[in-house]
Amino acid sequence: MSASGSATPPFRLPALVTVAAVVTTAATLQASGGLEWAGPARHGALVRYGLPLTQTATQVMAAVTIGLLLVVAFLAPDRSRDRWALTGTRLHAAVWAGYCGFVWFLFALAVLLLSVGEQTGTSIGSPDALMQLSFFVQNVVLGRILTLSMLLALLASQLALSARRTSTVGWAFLVAVAALVPPSLNGHSSGADDHVNSVNSLLVHSLSAAIWVGGLIGLVMLSPYLRQPLEAARRFSPVATVCFVLLGLSGLDSAWLRLGSWNAMFSPYGALLAGKAALLVILGAVAWWHRRRMLAAERADPRRTMLRIAAVEVGLMAVAIGLAGAVSRSVPPVAEAPSSSDPDYAFTALVGFERPPEMSWATIFTQWFPDRMLIMLCAGLIIGYALGVRKLRTRGDAWPWWRTVLWVAGCLLLLWVTSGGPVKYGMIAFSGHMIMHMLLMMAVPPLLVAGSPVTLALRAVPARRDASAGAREWLLSIAHSRVLAVLAHPVVAAVLFSGGLVVFYFTPLFPLAMSTHTGHMLMTFHFLASGYLFCWVLIGSDPGPPKAAYPIRLIIVMATMAVHAFVAVTLMTGEVLLAPDWWPQLGLTDAEALLEDQRRGAMIAWAVGDGPTLLLMLAVTISWSRSSGREARRYDRQAERDDDAQLAAYNAYLSALGSRKAPPS
Question: Where is the Copper resistance protein D domain (predicted)?
Fold first, then answer.
């Protein structure tokens, strides 16, 4: 707490930011013509003006909530003995984050109600408003998305209000970030020609903006109460830098997809985007200057210096949020769907690219469908790993070169699978899908696991000395958590790895993953995560729960091979076409050809899956042999030191047993 011990909630700043952002949205929409009426006459002014302004207020409160949780969980210095116990300022800040999260929930509820009015023309006070709301929430995609986001905001709020441990605040932060994902999947960009990159760009843009803006607002709110505000600001600096880069890249990508040409820059929509870009450049310059001033203020009054400069950043960010709200309600110059004059109009509208040539071993390596979000992810993984290795070598520590090679190879393979031929053909052919599936589950994870990224991070990232939780502390906490102990149990990992195949392909999950971008993203994450977990349980060297005995690991591998064979044989001999409603939408109506491709995919799954599985068995066997050799050498060294005292004691024990008289019969 501050010197005065005051715990008065500092809600004036988020209120001012909300008002500034809302006023900016209203003024911008009025000036650009975005509020001109284009809907049915029965829609009222409440929906016309209230919806865009409420959406802006929702974005502000979401950012404030996320920012406060970020500061509490990762940035704020602490002097308590237990870094995971919330006390003092951090406890109060978690409660304040809960209050802000509840206001976020209320704004999100207002957005839901106003969206019902916009979609149906029903007044909020009309007799059938409740019925329309129920139908909207249950049957309309937008209604389900808004409801899910609203409930996640409420959950984050309740977690923050009830938090007494830092780990609970971390969960609240993750839930709050997750609440931003559903609305991002339904923004303007979700209807663009390049659907995948449009949605992904908007998602990255929304998350990076919320973390950057919210983190700065959280620092300013808590600065009067923190003992070392400058230290918290220093810790936030690299986070802000990454968010700034992601914000700029995703903004440029989204702008190009929405504009389509340089001439569109002169449209009202282009002018709004130009204003956002200019503000981003100014914010970057101010942030750079801010960091230099913070370093210079080491011996001055750091709290006053930080507040004075950060106030300018927060003001600019409020205007930027307001402009973003206006952009989201403006009509872009690019059409929301491909032209119907294209003979493959339906195909392109569904998958986002023109029909490729027939799949072959040549085309699968030459066809590309770049997923720019995953490209940035792979690049970030390689750069982060390289920086960790460089830090170790700078201080004279060694790191095996082959681990670096395997990590980079795994990242590059992941990039190709998710942006090359496998993903492109995986969206339009079952055989292509199986190639993508097997590579994600069986080829990429072993390479990444062999890179030992957690071990590298623990050696490269310094430990916190003020009882706060940084990246290293969170990694150790996760590695030794009960949740990971359950997930890392060999049976659980095997069920997630192999049992997921049965659940995925023989339930509606497969058609959902093929026909929706969200389903495809979740499918990709599941394949990669379950494969990584399974390989780590078998051959991983990173710290975590105790590993199972080597014989158990071999049994688990053989059991998964049996499950894979069962799924493959079932698909090869089956006469039921999976996702029967998806293929006709792509113009593929030959049922026999589709079944033949499905059988071909099953054979690919069996062949491609067994190869890496056998290599895993070989790796487990080699590890077992090396472990036995190390144990034997350790025993020999111990015997040399104590003249084989352990063996002598055992022999003496046997002699004592033999010298006992047999009991009388």
Answer: 231-326
* DSSP conformation class of 555: H
Distance from C-alpha of 566 to C-alpha of 255, rounded to nearest angstrom: 48
Closest CA to 101 of 134, 149, 42, 138: 149
Neighbours of 565 (CB within 10 A): 14
Q: Of the ranges 17-26, 283-292, 486-495, which one carries the lowest mean pLDDT score?
A: 283-292
Q: Where in the chain is the domain with CATH 1.20.1630?
A: 12-328
pLDDT at residue number 140: 86
CA pair distance 253, 249, nearest whole angstrom? 6
Residue 419's CB: how many other CB atoms inside 10 A?
20
Using DSSP's 3-state secondary structure scheme, residue 85 falls into strand
State residue 100 phi and psi, 5-degree precision: -65, -40
Residues 400-452 have pLDDT tens digits of 999 999 999 999 999 999 999 999 999 999 999 999 999 999 999 999 999 99
3-state class (DSSP) for residue 165? strand
Judge whether 119 and 136 are in contact, CB under 8 Å. Answer: yes
The set of residues, in sequence order, having a beta carbon less than 8 Å from that of 490 and lying 6+ positions away, is 537, 548, 552, 553, 556
Report yes or no: 122 and 128 within 8 Å, Cβ to Cβ: yes
What is the model's pLDDT at position 158? 96
Instruction: Give the pLDDT band (50/70/90) at residue 26.
Output: confident
Q: What is the pLDDT of residue 517?
A: 86
Q: Which CATH class is domain 12-328?
A: mainly alpha
Q: State the CB neighbour count (10 A cutoff) for residue 60.
A: 30
Pair 356, 184: CB distance under 8 Å: no
Q: How many CB atoms lie within 10 A of CB 562?
A: 10
Q: Cα-flanking dihedrals φ and ψ of residue 223, to 5°?
A: -55, -40
Task: Convert the pLDDT of each residue in 603-639 to its tens digit.
Answer: 988 888 778 888 888 888 888 877 666 666 666 666 6
DSSP-H helix ranges across 495-586: 500-505, 509-515, 517-539, 550-573
Compute φ and ψ for 267, nearest 5 degrees: -80, 165
Q: pTM to 2 decimals?
A: 0.86
